[in-house]
Each structure stands twice: as structure tokens, then as C-alpha cells.
Inverse folding.
């Protein structure tokens, strides 16, 4: 009876509530002004709820006594609005982390971030595109914990992208790029010479073909646990890019974008010049002082002073405006100074005056549409960038098309096609090469030469009228060309056509089983042409490099989407196969013996008969099968298990299959706290273990001979100096990871900390061997590298209201890398050797990337000098003198929004890591920097002869430990540079703190325009605006030579460029 | 369901194509097999290039022997071998490029079809390879001292032991004898693949005997009996005129040009001038070869830059256009050298016929003629009391040493070797160094220190320390 009464009472109560209802209507929009489709609207403490329609509008019936409504949407903070008198409530949701946020994981599977049992970090598309970097890799710097980017300052140059440290001795260590599930090649096709500082151009890395405007979001999968399903190629982590798939609003949307930017070189990253001493190497020329050539130029029968034009150093005579001297232009018949002497003073325009204002434009549009049948998008972006060097530009045209169509309830078809054309002209020369003017300006430069006079000479004559005549009587260049001749005559150009995309279908066999088939293609053809004009220092030459890259992937997937097995157990599963075919073919050809006809850059214009070009034809196929199962128990325990097997064509046929498993566990301990968790909003512990197998590079199993150029009629053949190995087996990487993720105070504060350890064993690499074996290297299966580290990201959102929000995000990581073994008794693997007698190495017991070279001799920790007062050198030049690995890297990302204006800035940091500077190794020797022309401890000009109070005392001690008191002469070149100071004296700490990005965006109020325009945003941004702190004199600590395993070396470094831009975006 | 079947089929397909799959690993652009001839050609060219090049990264022998000096960048003239890893670059050419390809060539000789390559041809081919092996190992010993020999060129042993220089010499002498006796001058050798003689085995026999004469004389101060027997056996078969010089004829177009042209002319560098050491010495003797060896200086005469000091390029004489010509030949052995060796043999009491003075004069005549001087030039020169054998200053070692050094002008390595062996001429000493600091050997490659450490250490100890001032086994004062 009592039960019946209760029931009746309840029925009445419900009925009375139902009777006293009110209908609330309104629109839900995102903070970008777009209406949100499908946002959840529900009454607080009541059961009623609805979702918004395609216009973001809703109608919600709530009980009369309802006090508040909750609005939520994926990717936006849930908002609570207290109900007042009005029945119309319009809400603007602020984007940010939210409980239901999803991230895209391996193979494009979308998962709730909260349920991920491994580390993954997401970057929004806006954060990648708003400062309009032309290389997407650079846009990720400082934004993801554990992701180390090393950029180069050349226009369109390559950037190195490493997750959790270098793992492989000699294979590519770059993270894998995957766009919408399709692996996209990120090759660096620079020559071996370019990568080891010998010279050549940096043509960039292929990921620069990705259109930042097409990116919806980027997820970085860091550890093997997250990437195991991708197989071996993902052992270095994955940068997963999800492209835009049609907008959230109804109908067709059109967006137009246009922007312009300008850049100036950062003077703190370029050389400063002394202005006291002119051209020469010392006092051994012709006139009585020894500083000048002594020729009768004007024919008056007496000898005149002539600057030693052949000399590329600044250890000449002290400047004296009262002294008349003949300069290089006195021997240039076209010059107004022809045959005339001039006062002997420093140049008015130093080499910094060669840098022009970089100028870039970008414009593009996108059209997209979306309805319940499918979506489409079409985008076009054009970038034009002119660099700071004369005659340099890189243009890009990018077209993206994507569509999905639901044929039926069960069948979905999708496709995407992307085309990127890159055109480069006059890329900057790099390394130790006549085409790299930075080597000239930073290492071998007489400060008496005026760069603008060189420009005028080139413009006047169109010839190689150089300051560096072999002799006043032989007006041909000796070591250096006119810098403008170099830029306008000895230039490269390149072009790349790239197509990537995919097509496939998904069929829902039953409610619990989908099948997906997909074919994807990444293909490009590229040409790189280089030229040296007749009349240059280097032999005139034309060379071309053609390369075709093609990768086809065939994927088949059977997928059981996450489903409830019981009300406590959720389950998902995946079985799939992948066939990957990679074909790389290239041909490099060059003229032989010079160019017959000046100005014609063609292989047929070779003086001597053409030599056979270098051909490469590499093929790789990997067949993979994989399976994965996922379990979620009672919302707090998540378990993922996976296994993959691969068969690789690059391994010996009898041993080419290998299998590797992974297991990941997540414990969402905040679920144990029940509903009442305002202090700790979320907490999760993660553990995972994974192993990833890896195959050999193609063509490392079977031996082949090489052919050399024929000698007359005789053909020449030789053994490859690398011995291949028919007994190779797969190498593998084992990763262990643990993490803790917590958020507090309704997601106002949170952190995510991960610790990991990865070991890469049985490495397949060509181990250097004693050349007395007849070989330089032998492929072996040995060695182990360990990477251990911590990654942390912390966010604060102290203020988060529709009118004002502030988000602060910190990323920090440290990686400790150690080469545990190289196999057998091998103790050192040289990765590259450089000019300056230094090398980059993997040495047992040391981090990967130690710098070796000649060291000082230390006595009680002090640099020791010999009897002659100069530093003693270590007996060998193979001492470890530096380590390129940073102690830690970090980024601070701030986003402030006030009504329609948002301000973001990023501070990017690196602590530690060494680099060797060839620029100072030579430049201090040749006396162009101010410190070589100052005062000594006596207050006298240090370049004076010792007898006149000059000379310097090198800081250090004598062999007996007493302070050095021996004064040495600094009159001739060399005292501060390479000949007198070992390489260790030119190792610098590459730490930096940079204001990397600033952007200010103003969403113009919609009421200002008519109905046609849905939104108009004006953005102002800056890149690399301020180096807050660095320890490398005259250079950018980030500058290197190229992307790849060899870092920590500067030679002919380019300055960094401060860029300011404006961008206008309109939506219709 | 059909689709699942299709997928399974595809997977199965991928796994079943094993045969084609393995073929992906076959290099399609490089040969899996070659005949021995092209390997022999390659080894020959690599050997002659490395012995001839003046490139500062590899071949600084013209500086060590003070024929040339540097202008602005004087590190190598001051005996800085380390910065550019010069010993390593030299070693790395001789072992993998020369010796290993000779070994591979010898491995392939017996696999040729005997119908086309009968036994006597194969024996001749093997003899050619052996002669170059002996020459190359001799150069290695003469550069470093003890080097890997008995365990060298075996990739299954990546830590090859160092053998004693003299022990290597002993084996080389045996191998050389065996090669000489196996030559059949009526049969072909490598034919067109032989870049030195085009398969003419009589030429190889002369080469081998000249080499044997040279090798024998290297023993003179350490094993006089052995030297005597080798020299006496070889003397008759060695070069008898400039026409028989063992010369490698470079071609006029790259990449088969004279390496001196490559570096000085094609490379456009202006790094070298003649050294005052040789120019002053030759000027003092009014040597007719001066204008053939050198260009005129800024003043119209002949002068050399101060050895190892900074020198103004335009002031001094440079190597002549003959030496820097693109097709100028490189010499393994020449007639002048053989006659100098015979002069020395007579002085040492070896039975080779003639008098020391006759051989000495013939050597100088041969050199002057080789370089294009006239017999009258030679007569006038030999009439100079400072040149004539009877009246020239010093003992026979000094007389022969001085004139041989002049004759070996374009052969820096031999110039340096004979200076070490004969202790003449007197070289200049760079500022801040002593006479003893002038290198008498190369230090071992840094790579040997890191990749073959234990053997390097014992090898270095056995030669008396890995130092440039250590004398090699045949180098007695």
C-alpha cells in the first residue's frame, strides 16, 4: 500500500512539472562566430535536453522551476547560463579542453582523449596557420612537449623534427607525417656534401608541401605505444594531420584569405666588423711596411701603395685617412675610381648591407559544403616568398580537394586530392663553398671592401668584377667572386610537383562491424638545377638532379567500433593489412670540364664529353598485417593490445618477417571519486609497453660493383667501399612509457606528465671498419641506443568568460640519450666529419651527437700554454669537445582574448646543447671581428709588435700550473683563430630563449557588414621577433646546415629573419 | 562478406609473391659481376692519381720535399698533417681503392674462360696485379712503417694486425721475383684494361725489374747482402732509356687528366709557388732545368717563396705549364732514377758494371733530356765543378742525393723518400721548428686509433712511437 501511494504521488508530481514548462530558444555559436551544429543543450538538474540544428538554433522545454541551462560542445568549454526572465538565450562557447574532446589516433581512429592510454598532444589548426610559416614543421616548434625542431635560416630551408631523441645510428630519425591516414614523405634530398657542410643548396624538406590552411588539427603521437600500428616507419613518432572536412555551418561556405609580410635580418645574429685594419694577412708584402703591394700604378716612376687584393683577411695596415692607397676598383676600367688612389679607410657599407627586406605574400580561398549526405572542400593557397638574399624566392601553389559521400546508410565513399607546386630560385648557398657568401662574410673578409661598391661594379659591368683580384696585374678573381655575381649568376633553381591523396570506402557490414578499403598515393617529381657561370672562381658548370618519389599504400581494415558488451565493459577491435610500395628513382648529371658557351645551362654545353650521370633506382615493399583490441571497464580502466607483423623486401628473403606487440593501460582514477569532483576534475595514469620492428635500408643485403668514368676505351670498375650483409635481421625499438594527466578546478588548471624509455637494438647500420680491411664500412646488426626522458605540459585558464579569456600553456621536455653499444669492440661511429677537423659522432657511453676535435691541454682545469705562449693542442683531434643534445626544451604559449580581439604569443626555449662555429674558427683568425683589433692588457693596440707594447697573453697556465705571462705577437693572422686555438675553443652553448610568435587577431563585428559576409578577421603577426637570450656570438644558435642526423655545426651561418605580417580573412 | 574475402585474398597475395619481392633488393643500376680487367684499370688509376696529386688533403709530398711551398694558408708546409687528416686520406685510397680492387681482380682472373684467356695470359695478368701490389705496399711501408699486411684486406677480420716493415719488404721481394718469373712476354696480359702498357708484358718486366732494383736499394743500410743480391739481379732488366720510363699518360680531358692540372689550373687555386729551397739550389748551379720546372717570377727571374712562410703569390716562380699540363705524364720509374741507383750501387760495392761517375752523369743527362734540355745543356751543366761528380761537394751520398732530388722534381714522394734515405739535400727548417721536426714518416690515420685500437697501439710501439720524427727501418743516419 505504501508503495502504491508513493507511486501515485510520483505520477502526480511528474505531471504537475510537465504542465509547468517553459520553452527556451536561442542560438549557440562558437567563439569564432560560427553557429555550432549539434551542440548539447540541457537543463541543469533536469532530464530535458536537445541539440542545436544546422543554424545553431535550439528549442528546449524546461520545467518552470529550472534555474540554469548547460551548453556543451566537443572542443569547447561547457557553459552554464542561469535562467532569467527572458526565454531567448544566445550563447557563445569558448573553445578549449573539454571532457568529451576527441583526438585522432593511429589509422585515423578518433578516440576520446580521456580514454587514451598513451601520450598524444594536439595542436589546433589555427595555431599552426596563424603566423603563416611556409614550412609546417616550423609551426610546431615549442607547441608540443618532447618535439624538437631545428630550423635553418635559409629561405625554404630544411627543418629537423625529432620526437624523443635520435634512435637510429644512421637511418632517418625524423618523425613520420600522416595526413588523414596517409603517410606523406618528408625527405630531405640535399646532397651528402650539403649535409656535411661542404657546400651546395638546402632545398628544404618535403613536408613543407603541406598546406597549413587546410589543417583542422595536428596530433603528435610520441611513443611506440601510440604508433605501433603504423609499423616500423613510425618508430620515430608520428605527426598526424587532420584536414578540414567541411565547416560546421549550413550550406556552402566560402573563405578568402590574403596577407603580406616583410622580414628584416636580425643584426644580433650577424657578424660585427672591426674598423681599424685593412686587407691582408700580415706584414710580408712588397712595400717597406710589409702591408701593401708596391707598384707604380700612375706611371710617375715611384712605387705606390696598393692594397693586397688577393687577400681575404683583415690583418692589413691600420687605417689612416691621410694615406692614399689603390683599392681593387683602381684596376676596374669601368669604375670612376679607375687608376685613382683613395684615402685608406674602412668600408662604409659592411656585408650586412647585402641583406634585402624579405617580402612575402599569401592569398587563397576555400569553398566547402556539408550536409547529411556528405561534405566537400576545395582550397587554393598561393605563397610567394622573397628572401633576404638578392635574387632569391620560393613560390608555392597548393590545391586541396576532399569529399565524402554517403551512398547509403551503410556505404560511405571518400577521396582527397592535393597538389603542391614549389618553385625555388636562388636558394642560399650553404657550407664551405664559394656560393655561400656567409662563409665569405663571416670567415674570410677584408673590412676595407664596401659591399655596395661591389653591387655597383656588378651592375655597371655585368661581370665578375671582384674585390679579390689575383693581382692588380691579373684582374681575375682568386678566391672569391663579386658577391652580386654569385647571387645573380651562380644560382640554383628547383621545382617540385607533388600529388598526394587517397580514395576509399567504408561499408557498415553490421552495426558492429565496418570494413574500410583505401588506396593512397604520395608522388612527386622534382628537379634541382645548379649553375656556375663562366668567369667564376669555380669551374663553370651546370648540373641537374631529377628525382621521382612514389609511395602507394593499400589498406584494408575491419573495424569493430567501440561498443558496450555489458553496461560496464566497452570493447573495440581492428584487424587490418597494409601493403606499402615505395619507389625512388633519381638521376644526377653534370657538365664535365666547364661550359663551352657562356650563359647556356645545358648538359650538351659541356667542354669535355659528359660523364655518366649517377642513377638511383630503389624499391621497397613492406607487407603488414595488424590487429588491435581495446577494452574500457567501468569508465576507469582502459586496455589496448595490438600486434603487427611485417614482411620487408629490404631484408634477406629467408629472414624478412617480424612481429611486434604493444600493450597500453589507462587508469582514470578520477572516476573513483564519483560525481563530486570540483577540485580534481580529471585524473588518469597511463602505462604502456611497445616494440616496433624495423627493416634495413634498400640495397644493403647484396653486394654490387660500381663503375667509374671510362679511361679512353677502358672501363673502370671497383668494389663498393661498404660491404653489404646477407645475414641481416630486423632491428627493433622497445618503448616503455608512464604518464599522469590531471585537471583541476573545472579544467582551469591541468598538467600531463610522461616519462619514457626507449631502447633501439640490433641496429642495422654500416659500421666503419679499419680501411686496411679494404672497406670503409660493413653492414652489421648490432648496437643499442637508449632514450630516456620526461615530458610535461601544463595549462592554466585563469579566466574563461565569453568576453575575456586567458589561456597559458607550458611545454617542457628533457631527453637523455645514450649510445649503449655499437656492437663488438666498436667504440665510435663517425656520423660526419667537417671542415675544421671536427666530427659528429655516436660514441659508446656518450649521447648520440658528440662533437670531436682537437682540445686544449688542461692543467688543473686551466688551458695550458707551451713555452712559446701559445695554447697546447691535445695529441689527437678525436677528443670529445661537445654534445649537441639540449638539456631541455620548452615553450610558453599564451592566448588572451578580449571580446573580438585575441592576442597570442609563444616563447620558445632551448637550454644547452653545443655547436661548433667554423665561422669563428676562421673569422677570428682572419681578423674581421672586433675582438681581434682591441686593446691588450697594457692598454695598447694588441696588433702592435711586441716591441711596441702590443701582443697578447693567452688566458691560461704554463705546464707547471703557474699563470701564463708570455706575450705573443698578434700582428699577423691567426692568433685568435684556428691555427693557434684548438677546435674546442670554438664550441658554443646553443641555448636560447626566443619570442617566437606573436599574433593579434581582430574579428570585426558582424554588424559592420551586410548579410553577405559572415565574418571578417584582421590578423597581425610576427615571427622570430626577439632573441631574448643566447650565447652564440654573431649568430643564431638554431642555425645549422641541414635537417638530418648531423647537427651542431655552423659554417657560413645565415642570420635569422624577423618577420611581420598582416592577414585578412573573410568568410561568406 | 565479399569484401572481406577480397581483403583476405589481397593479403594472401602479398605474402605469396616472395620471388618478385626479393628481387626488389637487387641493385638495378650497378653490376653484380664484372670481369677482372676494369678492376685492374681502376686500381692503376687510383694509384697513380694519389701518388701524383698536389691536393693538400691527400698529397703534400711536394711540400715535404720542398719543391713547392704555400702562399697564404701555410699549415701543410708547416707539417700540420692532422687538421686535414692527410695520412688517413692517403691510407684510405691505397687500401680500399687500390689494394682491395687488385685483390678482387686477382680473385676473378681464374674465373675467366680459358678459351679466350689461356693460362699464360692469366699468369701475366696475375703478375701485373702482383707488381702493383708490391709497389703499393712498398709505398705504404715507406710512408707509415709497420702496416697491416698479412691480415689486411679481409672483411671477416675487422681488426687486422700490423706487420713489421722489414718483414713486409721480405715478402714483397719474394712476390716480386715470383711475378717476374711468371711473365711470358709473348702472351697478352690485360690488353686494353692495362692503362700503363696496353698489355705489353715486356714493359711490365722492365717495370718489375726497376721496382726490384729500387726495393733492393732500400735495404742497403739494413741488410747489405740482400740489397746487393736484389740490385745485382735486377740491374740488367731495369729501364735503359727514357723511352722505357714507366709512365702513366694522362688524357687531355677530365676526369682523366693530370691531377696537378686539376688542382692548379682547373681548380684555379693560387696556393702554391716554387720553394726557395730548390730554386736557390738550382740557381746556384745554373741548372738548365730551372726554366723548364718553373715560371718566371714578378721580376722576370726565378725565385722561390720562403719555405713554410707566408708568401705573396705574384712575387715568386710557380710550377711551369709543362708540369701543370692536363696530359702531362706521371712516372712510376724513370731512366735518370735508375742510373742514380746504379751510381749508388757502384759506391756501395755492388757489381752492376760501370763507375759511379758514369752512372751519375748518365742520370743527369737522362733527366735534362727528359725535361727537354739539349745535350749541350747537359754538357755545360756537367762541366760545372759544383755538379761534376769528381768535384761536387760532399760525400757520394750528398752528391747523388742532391742531384737525384733535383731530377725527382715532379715526384714528391720519391723526393721525400730519397731525402730520408740519403740524408741529402739539406732542407730548410720552418720558423719555430728544428731540423729533426721535418717528418720522416706519416702518423697513422686517426681512424686506426679508433677502429683498430689494439693493433694500432702495438704497431705504433713497434715503429718507435706514432710520431713524424721517427725513422723508418731503412732510414739510418
Amino acid at each position: 500500500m505504501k508503495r502504491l501511494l508513493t507511486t501515485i504521488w510520483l505520477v502526480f508530481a511528474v505531471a504537475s512539472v510537465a504542465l509547468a514548462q517553459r520553452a527556451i530558444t536561442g542560438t549557440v555559436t562558437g567563439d569564432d562566430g560560427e553557429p555550432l551544429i549539434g551542440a548539447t543543450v540541457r537543463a541543469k538538474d533536469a532530464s530535458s535536453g536537445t541539440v542545436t540544428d544546422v543554424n545553431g538554433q535550439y528549442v528546449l522545454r524546461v520545467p518552470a522551476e529550472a534555474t540554469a541551462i548547460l551548453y556543451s560542445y566537443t572542443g569547447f568549454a561547457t557553459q552554464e547560463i542561469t535562467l532569467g526572465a527572458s526565454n531567448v538565450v544566445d550563447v557563445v562557447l569558448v573553445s578549449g579542453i573539454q571532457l568529451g574532446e576527441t583526438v585522432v589516433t593511429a589509422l585515423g581512429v578518433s578516440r576520446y582523449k580521456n580514454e587514451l592510454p598513451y601520450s598524444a598532444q594536439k595542436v589546433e589548426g589555427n595555431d599552426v596557420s596563424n603566423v603563416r610559416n611556409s614550412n609546417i614543421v616550423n609551426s610546431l616548434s615549442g607547441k608540443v612537449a618532447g618535439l624538437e625542431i631545428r630550423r635553418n635560416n635559409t629561405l625554404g630551408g630544411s627543418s629537423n623534427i625529432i620526437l624523443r631523441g635520435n634512435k637510429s645510428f644512421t637511418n632517418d630519425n625524423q618523425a613520420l607525417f600522416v595526413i588523414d591516414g596517409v603517410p606523406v614523405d618528408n625527405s630531405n634530398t640535399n646532397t651528402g656534401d650539403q649535409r656535411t657542410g661542404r657546400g651546395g643548396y638546402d632545398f628544404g624538406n618535403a613536408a613543407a608541401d603541406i598546406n597549413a590552411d587546410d589543417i583542422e588539427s595536428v596530433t603528435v603521437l610520441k611513443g611506440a605505444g601510440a604508433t605501433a600500428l603504423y609499423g616500423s616507419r613510425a618508430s620515430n613518432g608520428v605527426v598526424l594531420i587532420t584536414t578540414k572536412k567541411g565547416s560546421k555551418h549550413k550550406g556552402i561556405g566560402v573563405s578568402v584569405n590574403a596577407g603580406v609580410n616583410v622580414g628584416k635580418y636580425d643584426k644580433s645574429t650577424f657578424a660585427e666588423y672591426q674598423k681599424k685594419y685593412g686587407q691582408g694577412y700580415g706584414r710580408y708584402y712588397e712595400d717597406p711596411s710589409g702591408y701593401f703591394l708596391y707598384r707604380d700604378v700612375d706611371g710617375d716612376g715611384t712605387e705606390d701603395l696598393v692594397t693586397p687584393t688577393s687577400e681575404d683577411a683583415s690583418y692589413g695596415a691600420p687605417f689612416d685617412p691621410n694615406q692614399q692607397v689603390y683599392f681593387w676598383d683602381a684596376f676596374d676600367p669601368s669604375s670612376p675610381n679607375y687608376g685613382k688612389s683613395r684615402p685608406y679607410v674602412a668600408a662604409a657599407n659592411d656585408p650586412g648591407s647585402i641583406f634585402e627586406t624579405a617580402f612575402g605574400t599569401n592569398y587563397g580561398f576555400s569553398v566547402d559544403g556539408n550536409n547529411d549526405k556528405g561534405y566537400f572542400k576545395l582550397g587554393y593557397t598561393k605563397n610567394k616568398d622573397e628572401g633576404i638574399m638578392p635574387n632569391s624566392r620560393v613560390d608555392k601553389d597548393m590545391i586541396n580537394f576532399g569529399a565524402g559521400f554517403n551512398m547509403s546508410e551503410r556505404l560511405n565513399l571518400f577521396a582527397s586530392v592535393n597538389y603542391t607546386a614549389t618553385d625555388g630560385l636562388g636558394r642560399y648557398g650553404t657550407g664551405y663553398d664559394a656560393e655561400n657568401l656567409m662563409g665569405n662574410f663571416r670567415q674570410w673578409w677584408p673590412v676595407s671592401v664596401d659591399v655596395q661598391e661591389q653591387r655597383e661594379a656588378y651592375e655597371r659591368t655585368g661581370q665578375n668584377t671582384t674585390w679579390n683580384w689575383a693581382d692588380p696585374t691579373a684582374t681575375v678573381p682568386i678566391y672569391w667572386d663579386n658577391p652580386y655575381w654569385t647571387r645573380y649568376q651562380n644560382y640554383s633553381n628547383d621545382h617540385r610537383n607533388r600529388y598526394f591523396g587517397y580514395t576509399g570506402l567504408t561499408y557498415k557490414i553490421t552495426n558492429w562491424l565496418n570494413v574500410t578499403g583505401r588506396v593512397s598515393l604520395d608522388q612527386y617529381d622534382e628537379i634541382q638545377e645548379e649553375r656556375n657561370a663562366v668567369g667564376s672562381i669555380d669551374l663553370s658548370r651546370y648540373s641537374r638532379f631529377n628525382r621521382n618519389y612514389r609511395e602507394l599504400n593499400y589498406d584494408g581494415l575491419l573495424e569493430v567500433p567501440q561498443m558496450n558488451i555489458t553496461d560496464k565493459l566497452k570493447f573495440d577491435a581492428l584487424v587490418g593489412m597494409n601493403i606499402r610500395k615505395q619507389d625512388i628513382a633519381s638521376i644526377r648529371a653534370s657538365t664535365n670540364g666547364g661550359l663551352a658557351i657562356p650563359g647556356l645551362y645545358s648538359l650538351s654545353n659541356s667542354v669535355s664529353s659528359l660523364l655518366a650521370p649517377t642513377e638511383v633506382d630503389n624499391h621497397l615493399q613492406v607487407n603488414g598485417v595488424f590487429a588491435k583490441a581495446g577494452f574500457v571497464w567501468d569508465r576507469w580502466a582502459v586496455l589496448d593490445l595490438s600486434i603487427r607483423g611485417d614482411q620487408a623486401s629490404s631484408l634477406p628473403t629467408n629472414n624478412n618477417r617480424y612481429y611486434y606487440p604493444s600493450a597500453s593501460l589507462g587508469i582514470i582514477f578520477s572516476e573513483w571519486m564519483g560525481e563530486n569532483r570540483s577540485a580534481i576534475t580529471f585524473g588518469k595514469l597511463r602505462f604502456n609497453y611497445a616494440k616496433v620492428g624495423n627493416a634495413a635500408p634498400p640495397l644493403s643485403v647484396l653486394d654490387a660493383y660500381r663503375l667509374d668514368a671510362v679511361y679512353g676505351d677502358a672501363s673502370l670498375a671497383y668494389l663498393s667501399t661498404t660491404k653489404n650483409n646477407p645475414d641481416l635481421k630486423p632491428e627493433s625499438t622497445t618503448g616503455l612509457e608512464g604518464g599522469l594527466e590531471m585537471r583541476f578546478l573545472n579544467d582551469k588548471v591541468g598538467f600531463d606528465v610522461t616519462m619514457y624509455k626507449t631502447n633501439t637494438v640490433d641496429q642495422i647500420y654500416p659500421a666503419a671498419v679499419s680501411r686496411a680491411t679494404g672497406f670503409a664500412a660493413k653492414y652489421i646488426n648490432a648496437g643499442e641506443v637508449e632514450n630516456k626522458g620526461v615530458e610535461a605540459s601544463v595549462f592554466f585558464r585563469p579566466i574563461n568568460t565569453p568576453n575575456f579569456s586567458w589561456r597559458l600553456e607550458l611545454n617542457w621536455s628533457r631527453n637523455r640519450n645514450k649510445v649503449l653499444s655499437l656492437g663488438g669492440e666498436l667504440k665510435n661511429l663517425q656520423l660526419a666529419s667537417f671542415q675544421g677537423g671536427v666530427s659528429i659522432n655516436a660514441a659508446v657511453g656518450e649521447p648520440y651527437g658528440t662533437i670531436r676535435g682537437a682540445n686544449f691541454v688542461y692543467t688543473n682545469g686551466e688551458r695550458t700554454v707551451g713555452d712559446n705562449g701559445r695554447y697546447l693542442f691535445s695529441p689527437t683531434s678525436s677528443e670529445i669537445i661537445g654534445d649537441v643534445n639540449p638539456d631541455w626544451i620548452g615553450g610558453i604559449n599564451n592566448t588572451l582574448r578580449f571580446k573580438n580581439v585575441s592576442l597570442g604569443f609563444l616563447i620558445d626555449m632551448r637550454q644547452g646543447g653545443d655547436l661548433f662555429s667554423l665561422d669563428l674558427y676562421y673569422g677570428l683568425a682572419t681578423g674581421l671581428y672586433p675582438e681581434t683589433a682591441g686593446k691588450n692588457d697594457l692598454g695598447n693596440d694588441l696588433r702592435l709588435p711586441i716591441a711596441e707594447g702590443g701582443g697578447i697573453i693567452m688566458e691560461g697556465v704554463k705546464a707547471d700550473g703557474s699563470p701564463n705571462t708570455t706575450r705573443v705577437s698578434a700582428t699577423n693572422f691567426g692568433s685568435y683563430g684556428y691555427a693557434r686555438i684548438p677546435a674546442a675553443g670554438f664550441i658554443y652553448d646553443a641555448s636560447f630563449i626566443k619570442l617566437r610568435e606573436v599574433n593579434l587577431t581582430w574579428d570585426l563585428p558582424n554588424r559592420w557588414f551586410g548579410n553577405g559576409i559572415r565574418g571578417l578577421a584582421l590578423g597581425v603577426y610576427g615571427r622570430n621577433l626577439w632573441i631574448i637570450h643566447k650565447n652564440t656570438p654573431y649568430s643564431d644558435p638554431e642555425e645549422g646546415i641541414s635537417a638530418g642526423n648531423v647537427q651542431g655545426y655552423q659554417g657560413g651561418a645565415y642570420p635569422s629573419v624577423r618577420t611581420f605580417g598582416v592577414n585578412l580573412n573573410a568568410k561568406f | 562478406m565479399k569484401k572481406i574475402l577480397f581483403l583476405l585474398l589481397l593479403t594472401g597475395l602479398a605474402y605469396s609473391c616472395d620471388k618478385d619481392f626479393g628481387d626488389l633488393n637487387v641493385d638495378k643500376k650497378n653490376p653484380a659481376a664484372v670481369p677482372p680487367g676494369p678492376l685492374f684499370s681502376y686500381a692503376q688509376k687510383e694509384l697513380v692519381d694519389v701518388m701524383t696529386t698536389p691536393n693538400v688533403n691527400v698529397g703534400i709530398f711536394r711540400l715535404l720535399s720542398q719543391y713547392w711551398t704555400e702562399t697564404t694558408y701555410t699549415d701543410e708546409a708547416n707539417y700540420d698533417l692532422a687538421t686535414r687528416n692527410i695520412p688517413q686520406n692517403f691510407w684510405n685510397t691505397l687500401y680500399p681503392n687500390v689494394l682491395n680492387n687488385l685483390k678482387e681482380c686477382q680473385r676473378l682472373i681464374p674465373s675467366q674462360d680459358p678459351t679466350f684467356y689461356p693460362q699464360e695470359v692469366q699468369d701475366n695478368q696475375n703478375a701485373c696485379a702482383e707488381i702493383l701490389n708490391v709497389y703499393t705496399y712498398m709505398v705504404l711501408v715507406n710512408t707509415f712503417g709497420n702496416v697491416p699486411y698479412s691480415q689486411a684486406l679481409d672483411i671477416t677480420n675487422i681488426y687486422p694486425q700490423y706487420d713489421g716493415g722489414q718483414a713486409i719488404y721480405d715478402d714483397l721481394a719474394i712476390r716480386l721475383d715470383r711475378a717476374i718469373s711468371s711473365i711470358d712476354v709473348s702472351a697478352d696480359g690485360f690488353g686494353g684494361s692495362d692503362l700503363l702498357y696496353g698489355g705489353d708484358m715486356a714493359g711490365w718486366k722492365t717495370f718489375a725489374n726497376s721496382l726490384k732494383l729500387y726495393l733492393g736499394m732500400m735495404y742497403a743500410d739494413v741488410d747489405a747482402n740482400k740489397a746487393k743480391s736484389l740490385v745485382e739481379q735486377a740491374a740488367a732488366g731495369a729501364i735503359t732509356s727514357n723511352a722505357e720510363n714507366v709512365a702513366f699518360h694522362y688524357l687531355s680531358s677530365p676526369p682523366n687528366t693530370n691531377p696537378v692540372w686539376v688542382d692548379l689550373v682547373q681548380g684555379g687555386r693560387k696556393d702554391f709557388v716554387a720553394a726557395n729551397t730548390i730554386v736557390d739550389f738550382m740557381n746556384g748551379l745554373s741548372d738548365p732545368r730551372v726554366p723548364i720546372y718553373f715560371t718566371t717570377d714578378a721580376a722576370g727571374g726565378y725565385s722561390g717563396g720562403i719555405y713554410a712562410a707566408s708568401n705573396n703569390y705574384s712575387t715568386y716562380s710557380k710550377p711551369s705549364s709543362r708540369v701543370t699540363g692536363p696530359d702531362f705524364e706521371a712516372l712510376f720509374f724513370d731512366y735518370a732514377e735508375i742510373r742514380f741507383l746504379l751510381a749508388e750501387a757502384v759506391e756501395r760495392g755492388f757489381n752492376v758494371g760501370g763507375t759511379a761517375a758514369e752512372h751519375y752523369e748518365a742520370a743527369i743527362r737522362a733527366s735534362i733530356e727528359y725535361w727537354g734540355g739539349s745535350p749541350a745543356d747537359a754538357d755545360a751543366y756537367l762541366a760545372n765543378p759544383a755538379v761534376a761528380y769528381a768535384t761536387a761537394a760532399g760525400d757520394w751520398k750528398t752528391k747523388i742525393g742532391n742531384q737525384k732530388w733535383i731530377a725527382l722534381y715532379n715526384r714528391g714522394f720519391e723526393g721525400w723518400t730519397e731525402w730520408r734515405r740519403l740524408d741529402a739535400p739539406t732542407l730548410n727548417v720552418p720558423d719555430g721548428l728544428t731540423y729533426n721536426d721535418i717528418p720522416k714518416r706519416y702518423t697513422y690515420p686517426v681512424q686506426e686509433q679508433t677502429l683498430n685500437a689494439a693493433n694500432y697501439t702495438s704497431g705504433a710501439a713497434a715503429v718507435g712511437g706514432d710520431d713524424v720524427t721517427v725513422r723508418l727501418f731503412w732510414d739510418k743516419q
